[in-house]
Amino acid sequence: MAEKSIEINGLTKKYGQHVAVDNLTLSIDKGEIFGLLGPNGAGKSTTILMLLGLTEVDSGSVKVCGIDTTRHPLEVKRKVGYLPEDVGFYNDYTGLQNLLYVARLNNIPLEQAQKTALRTLAEVGLEEEMDKKVASYSRGMRQRLGLADVLIKNPEVIILDEPTLGLDPEGVKKFLQLIVELSRKKGITVLFSSHHLHQVQQLCDRVGIFVKGKLLAEGKISSLAEQLFSKNTFTLEGGITPMDENPNQASDSLEEVVNKMKRIKEVSLVEVDKDHFVVESKKDVSAELSRLIVNSGYGLAYLSKKKYGLDDIYHQYFQEEEKRI
Amino acid sequence: MKNKIVKRATSKLTAIKLPKWISHINSFSLFNNGNLGSDSSLALSPFKVMVQKEITDHIRNWRFIILFALISLACMGTLFATLSDGMKVLVNDTTENNFFFLNLFTKSDGTLPAYFVFVGFLGPLFGISLGFDAISSEQNRGTLSRVLAQPIPRDSILNAKFLAGIIVISVMFFALSFLVLGAGLLALGIPPTAEEFIRIMVYTVLSIVYVSFWLNLSILFSVRFRQSATSALSGIAVWLFFTIFYPLIANLIIKGYEPSKYASPKAIYFYEKLKFYLVQIMPNELFDEITSAILVPSVRSLGPLTTEQMQGAIPSSLPLGQSILLVWPQFTGLLALTLLCFLFSYLLFMKREIRSRG
């Protein structure tokens, strides 16, 4: 088993009657990129605050890099870089000065801090703007400065709370690439919270789905899909076109084709809408399906295997949640 | 290319260094801990950085500049009024005391209030204005959670804000006191006596304590209230309450106990005591008493005295030690109020949940 970077055990946080985080148990390996996915108000931010000792833990324990956060918050903060949701900077200072301030708070001597700051700014692509006041920075620049802020202390773990909020798609893409690159290069563990499925899907090795303070599911995206869609794992989508040029060959009517499709082994569901069909099956039947269509005198316009993404997982979970309520 | 950037940036960095005098302050005040172990000096270094940043922020802030200009103007104004016209007052007053320099601080010709009145009046405003957005502005800008995610103890931020405020206030008050002293030296042509000088220094230190009470109170409000405006208003409300409304209320209560002309001395003594103690919780009253005892050496008592106590007293001015002894309870009270505010800020802040904004 790999070394654990973050270990959460039976973590609970209550605000009065409201349970924000409910008996959460989670562990994240070193060097892993973990996505914490959930809707707004699910308790993601609260969990992160507890990881850093920025709010009191009601019960349970949190260990980051083997250090208990509630007992030794300073040790943890030395090893963890945290980018808060909607991070703020001192607007009257330049980007470089903001960065230097944080470096000095981390007890990095001034000379070394200057060198590290310049290197980090180059890494996040802000070397052109570092002498401008932060007040003039765009949202994306602020976010990149925030990342530089996190990296300057040379952390073992990075915690990013909704870092892509308010960025344009291009900015999001660049930002995520930057995170992945840095994490892989330096072997940094990343905990990434978001309510954007696609970003998490692009970025993360493992995902935890977090709803109403509870971790509903946890694992690799593919295994999550298997857990959820165990009945019909494969979905094929395709389009058929009638072959008019070949009148010799008697072509079956569409209904017959559908019936034939249904007769293929393991196929459990066929839906047809004009020339577009969806087939759900327990195993991969694309070969049989294409042969059947061609033999029946139709042309196969396209056939694609649909992979279950986080989107579907997400919706599935929410549907279940709603049903339970 | 990269090297060039590094060079350019480092040259800029040296340019943005803090003013020289701040490093001097640091070297003579708290941070002169060269004999401590390397570990503890390392732990103090981030704190030092924070204090430096806060001081820079204060000095560059328009709010501070305006208030400083205001107090300097008031100080200059009184100084000129006292020196031009009041010279006679100063010299004529030698019947019972010959503390010319102390008179500079306490006497005026009537056109403008004396220096100590200005300090007593503008000091609280100064303290409130330096502290009212200490924590709330950091919270609203979202910098609080960023700073607290760094490996610094949480109380550092409160301590740094407080200490930076005190340093700025101290520098300002000492500068003003020396300014008045220097002007007096030029105008009078005689140097102050050692006792006068020490009295003025003690007065300056005590006025810093007084302003630091208001600073602490406003920091407490800035921890409690999310909106800077609310916290500023609360600070000013407390100040107004103590300067205007509390004396009224105290008067009402005292009126109820007013003894008749023919009441026993005991009743009159009780009445006087009540009158004295009712105003003792007012920080401005405490400071007024301190001012009068320190700057006017002939003040022999702050509370009521019985005739027996007065018997045999020689009508002369008190030595410095006795004057300080006289205001020691007031000084302690002021310090206690300051610490109380600090304690409450701690209680509120240490267990608080730090969200990124709002």
TrEMBL record, chain A:
Keyword vocabulary terms for this entry: ATP-binding, Nucleotide-binding, Transport
Molecular function terms, GO-annotated: ATP binding; ATP hydrolysis activity
Domain ABC transporter: 6-237
InterPro entries, A to Z: AAA+_ATPase, ABC_transporter-like_ATP-bd, P-loop_NTPase
Keyword Transport: yes
Signal peptide: none
Any Pfam family matching the protein: ABC_tran
Gene3D superfamilies xref list: P-loop containing nucleotide triphosphate hydrolases
Keyword Transport: yes
Domain of life: Bacteria
Stored CDD domains: ABC_DR_subfamily_A
Family recorded in the similarity comment: Belongs to the ABC transporter superfamily.
Protein name: ABC transporter ATP-binding protein
From TrEMBL, chain B:
A Pfam entry, by short name: ABC2_membrane_2
Regions crossing the membrane: 62-83, 112-132, 162-188, 200-221, 233-254, 327-349
Taxonomy, superkingdom: Bacteria
GO cellular component: plasma membrane
Keyword tRNA processing assigned: no
UniProt keyword Iron-sulfur present: no
Alphabetically ordered keywords of this record: Membrane, Transmembrane, Transmembrane helix
GO MF assignments: ABC-type transporter activity
PANTHER family according to UniProt: ABC TRANSPORTER PERMEASE, ABC-2 TYPE TRANSPORT SYSTEM PERMEASE PROTEIN
Protein name: ABC transporter permease
Source organism of the structure: Maribacter polysiphoniae
